[in-house]
Amino acid sequence: MTVSTFRKLERFLIAAALSVLGAVILVPQVASAAPPKIGPGACGGMGLPNPYCSFETSTGEDVVIGHDSCNGEGACLSLGNGTRIGSGSCNEWSACAYVGVSSGSVRIGSGSCNGWSACSYVGVNSGSVRIGDGSCNDMGACSSLRESSSVRVGNGSCNGYEACFDVGALGSSSAGNDSCNGEIACWRAGAHGSSIAGNNSCNGEMACIGAGYGGSSRVGNNACNGESACSDVGNSSGSSRIGNDSCGAESACAAAGSEGSSVIGNHSCNQQASSFGVCEAVGAYGGSSVIGNNKFN
Questions:
Q1: CB of 254 within 8 A of CB of 230?
Q2: Is 90 exceeded by the pLDDT of residue 24?
Q3: pLDDT digits (tens, 9 = 90+) for 53-73
Q4: Three-state DSSP state, 130
Q5: 250: number of Cβ within 10 Å
Q6: Where are the beta strands (DSSP E) in 188-252?
Q7: 118: closest CA among 101, 93, 100?
Q8: Is 115 helix (H, G, I), strand (E, B) or coil?
Q9: How far is it, in rounded angstroms, from Cα 44 to Cα 110?
Q10: How far apart are CA 178 and CA 218, in angstroms?
Q11: 142 neighbors 163 (Cβ within 8 angstroms)
Q12: Are 283 and 259 in contact (CB under 8 A)?
């Protein structure tokens, strides 16, 4: 081997060694997962796992449960890794059972998800769910928010029997603050489709039930308050857009844009009709309708 060839080989070996060394140096350090953190008065005050709390994995990685939460038989069984539960939440039978399992991402605020199966099966199968404070309280209030691309519930929202049951399942759904309160108020809204409700909207029995189910629905602020005010709007491949301060009467805008297309402006369709809603079924069933601001009040 000539001196020149030897030096080339030497440089090659040095470069290779430095490359390997650099690769070793640049390998990021993976932080070890944190053990579960359980607040005082939570999970029955007993060692884990127990009949109140358990984890999907043996370690319960990065699970955080606030004080006075998860009390009740099966309240927080099989929690997925990384689940966060605030204080005074998830109390009652099966209230938050199976939350976040199978790679889900779930954050539940304080004073939320209290009631039989209130938030069971939330965020399962890679779902992403965020629930604010004082929300999703009552039997089945926010149960089965599963396999969703994204579900967001604001503060003081989705309270009532199955108020937001199955919303955004296999789709997406968002409810602002103080919205979707009442028996089945927003039941299945945005499932297999998309639904958005602003602040202080969709309050009342069946106010926005099925909105955007298999379609698209957008409700502004202070809108769609009243029994069945905006039930089934924008569902079944339809599209519905409702502005602020609109559709505030019983059945006022029910089925608007269902299987069709409907746009309703601000402060419109608030008149209480004697039989049918004043803007009921506008733009529905293959039709198309646009109603401007300050109409039909």
A1: yes
A2: no
A3: 999 998 899 999 999 999 999
A4: strand
A5: 17
A6: 194-197, 216-219, 239-242
A7: 93
A8: coil
A9: 17
A10: 16
A11: yes
A12: no
Q: Give the contacts of 237 (CB within 8 A, at least 6 positions apart).
A: 214, 215, 259
3-state helix, strand, coil in the chain (%, to 5): 10, 15, 75
Contact, 112 vs 136, CB < 8 A?
yes
Q: Greatest CA separation found in the chain?
A: 104
Distance between CA 261 and CA 284 in Å, rounded? Answer: 6
Cα–Cα distance, 106 to 81 (Å, whole number) = 9
Q: In what order do the strands lie in the sheet with 84-85?
A: 37-38, 64-65, 84-85, 105-108, 128-131, 150-153, 172-175, 194-197, 216-219, 239-242, 261-264, 288-291
Distance CA 173, CA 194 (A): 6
User: In this structure, which amino acid lies at residue 269?
Assistant: C
Per the DSSP assignment, residues forming a β-bridge with 79 are 55
Q: How do residues 84-107 score in pLDDT, each as one tens digit?
A: 999 999 999 999 999 999 999 999
- Burial class for 287, CB neighbours closer than 10 Å (0-12, 13-18, 19+): middle
User: Which of these, 257, 239, 242, lies nearest to 296 by C-alpha position?
Assistant: 242
CA–CA separation, 71 and 62 (whole Å): 20
Q: According to DSSP H, which parts of 55-115 are helical?
A: none
Please compute the mean of the pLDDT values over residues 239-261 and round it to a whole number: 98
Per-position DSSP letters for 174-196, written without gaps between them: EE-TT-S-STTTTTTTTTTSEEE
- Which residue is listed with tokens 């629930």? 131
Tell me the two tokens of residue 200: 């202080």
Contacts with 288 (C-beta within 8 Å, 6 or more apart), sequence order: 260, 261, 262
